[in-house]
Specification:
The chain is of the alpha+beta class. 32% of the residues lie in helices and 11% in strands. The chain folds into 2 domains: 86 residues, no CATH class; 35 residues. The chain has a two-stranded antiparallel sheet with strand order 1-2. A two-stranded antiparallel sheet has the order 3-4.
Length: 150
C-alpha cells in the first residue's frame, strides 16, 4: 500500500489556528540535527509539513523554498503543520529568522565568550572546535554578520 499526499493529515493532531498541530506519526529523521517528521507519498519522501503546505496552497515546492514556522515548532518533538504557523522563505530568510529568535544554538553568553576568545587571539578554528560549530559560524560572529546586538 502506498500513501497519497493527503494521507499526511492522519498523522497530525489538528486543532485550532492558534495552537500547533503536532506530528504524531513515527517517521522522524534519524540524525540529531535533522529531526523532522518525514512522510512518503507518490514516490517522494519529504518533510511532512511540506506536504501539508503544498496541499493547502495547491503548489509544488522547489528545493530552494523553505517552510518557516512562526511558532518555532517545526522540529522534534512537535513538527507543527498548522498552515497558520507556516510561510515560505529562502535560506537567508531562515538564517535571519533563526538569529533573531536565537534558535541557532548559540546563546548570548556563548557569543560573548567567543568574542572574548577572539579578542585574546585564539584562532577561529580553535574556537569552532571548542564549541562544536563550524569555523564559518565563528567567522560570522567575528565579522558581526550575526549577533550584532550581543
Amino acid at each position: 500500500m502506498t500513501n497519497e499526499p493527503a494521507d499526511v493529515f492522519q498523522y497530525y493532531a489538528i486543532g485550532n489556528d492558534d495552537e500547533c498541530w503536532p506530528y504524531i506519526g513515527n517517521a522522524w529523521g534519524n540524525r540529531a540535527r535533522d529531526r523532522r517528521p518525514y512522510f512518503m507519498a507518490s514516490g517522494r519522501r519529504q518533510i511532512a509539513y511540506r506536504w501539508v503546505y503544498e496541499l493547502v496552497h495547491g503548489v509544488t515546492l522547489t528545493p530552494d523554498q523553505l517552510i518557516l514556522h512562526s511558532c518555532d515548532n517545526g522540529g522534534y518533538p512537535i513538527g507543527c503543520c498548522n498552515p497558520a504557523h507556516m510561510r515560505l522563505g529562502t535560506v537567508q530568510e531562515n538564517s535571519n529568522d533563526m538569529m533573531e529568535r536565537e534558535r541557532h544554538g548559540l546563546p548570548r553568553t556563548v557569543v560573548r565568550a567567543i568574542r572574548t576568545l577572539l579578542d585574546q587571539g585564539r584562532t577561529q578554528q580553535d574556537i569552532a572546535d571548542l564549541y562544536g560549530v563550524s569555523r564559518t559560524a565563528i567567522s560570522a560572529i567575528a565579522t558581526q554578520k550575526v549577533h550584532k546586538q550581543v
